[in-house]
Design goal:
By secondary structure, the chain is an all-beta fold. Helix content is 0%, strand content 46%. β9 and β10 form a beta hairpin. The chain is globular, with a radius of gyration of 15 Å.
Length: 144
């Protein structure tokens, strides 16, 4: 999560399409790749990473690397006000680097749900969690 926009204020997703204000959460202490990660804990519990315009029928996959004791730190997908969906993941698959795991969620936007997809990284625990390598991808719908 260290690619910055031209102003140096916003982080840019890997595809260059989504922007994120890290506030005071950007950290150089621990990173999965590169030099920086996003540190969330008691002083900074939540960071909304992206508000993405979506259309009915689209499918999205969002993933992030996390380093945290006791699985603190959550990836959340939800919609704008009035949307009736909320998905989160707390336990991820181990990643290639010790101490890090990978959180991933996939969602299909139904006809009545939303015009905006909110991607949220949250940690309400007392222990810190670090997030890195956020990926937000629109994927082709699979039809058997």
């Amino acid at each position: 999560m260290e690619r910055m926009d031209d102003s140096g204020q916003l982080l840019v997703s890997n595809d260059g399409q989504h922007f994120f204000n890290p506030g005071t959460s950007r950290n150089s202490g621990k990173a999965f790749s590169g030099e920086h990660s996003l540190k969330l804990g008691m002083k900074t519990e939540q960071n909304i990473s992206a508000l993405i315009p979506v259309e009915p029928g689209e499918q999205w996959v969002v993933s992030v690397k996390r380093k945290s004791p006791w699985f603190k730190g959550v990836l959340v997908l939800t919609g704008d006000e009035g949307a009736h969906f909320y998905k989160d993941i707390r336990v991820g698959l181990p990643s290639a680097r010790e101490g890090w795991d990978s959180l991933s969620l996939q969602i299909e936007i139904s006809w009545e749900e939303a015009t905006t997809l909110k991607v949220i990284l949250r940690n309400t625990g007392r222990l810190n969690a670090w997030f890195d390598d956020l990926r937000i991808e629109k994927v082709e719908k699979f039809s058997p």
